[in-house]
Amino acid sequence: MSAISQPGNQNLSSIAGQFVASGNIRRISPLGNGNVNDTFLVEPHEAEGEAFVMQRVNTDVFRSPERVMHNLLTVSRHVDDKLSNSPVELEGRRWEMPRVIRLKHTDGHWVEEHGDFWRGISYIGAAVTLDVVDSIEQARQVGYGLGMFHNLISDLPADELEDTLEGFHITPTYLRHHDQVLKQRNKPLDAEEQACQDFIDSHRSIAAVLEDAKEKGVLQLRPIHGDPKVNNLMMDAESGKAIALVDLDTVKPGLVHYDIGDCLRSGCNPLGEETADLENVVFDLQLCESILEGYLSTARSFLTDADFIYLFDAMRLIPFELGLRFFTDHLEGNRYFKVCDQRQNLKRARVQFNLCASVEAQEDKIKSLIGRLR
Hints:
With 374 residues, the chain is of the alpha+beta class.
């Protein structure tokens, strides 16, 4: 095949050729719409092997990619062992775990060239992803998918995993960084920016709620996914059932509340993260109920009373946290999240803050729902 121009002026086919014979490659194409890594689908000629996913890990974000790979391999092996015993929670359905592809000529699992870090991961075929949840059944499947993932890793000791992103989901740390960035800013905020800043200032008191509970020993560290937004769940293309949770770079020790809150933040916003219709951003309580029902159908057994008590706090905190991160990145010149225009992260922040406000407006109903589902 002809040479393909790459990020970093590299030839994708030569990188892919370290995982599979380059003469067998039929096509390499961009895959997905992730905000951090560059991802490609490598497709071989017919009868020459299976398609796989090739990624260039963003080492500005994941500064120790070897730790990322350690976690991915550890979790993958653990889940494979669990799946070999056909857990009853699978209900006879298909469930797949992304598998790390070995290099062709060595025992390694990644390629380092010209300062870039590349790895191959198995491709989950006959599956689709969602950008937004638009039905009650989809919501239940989203919840089931996260619950099944948590179920499969619930007995993996958290100390067997590396902390690949120190400070990730630690809201007080994000808030301190934001304050530093704001202090160093040399021009005034415009009206839209000021609205975001006002929201942050009015919610400073909620930033430490989960971390305080962790420090007191009320909530415990467990293995978590770290980024279980809706489009990281794979659905079987035919049945519509959840079959995998992918994008495992953020797997690490953490609070399950980070995952549950992030899943609900993503799944209960019918307009999606990129909507421009800010006035109609709402946290959909029906979708919330279905996601939690699906989650608890597989995850209830390892949740404590304290875990349930802090569920509402997680639902409110995680959209606030993500909005804070989006807004801070906007103020810093969009260094972390990929953008198409200079104000995209500002718009994203406003969506998340409106979602947080919608959660707060429904506090009594949400807490009543949690009580019923316990």
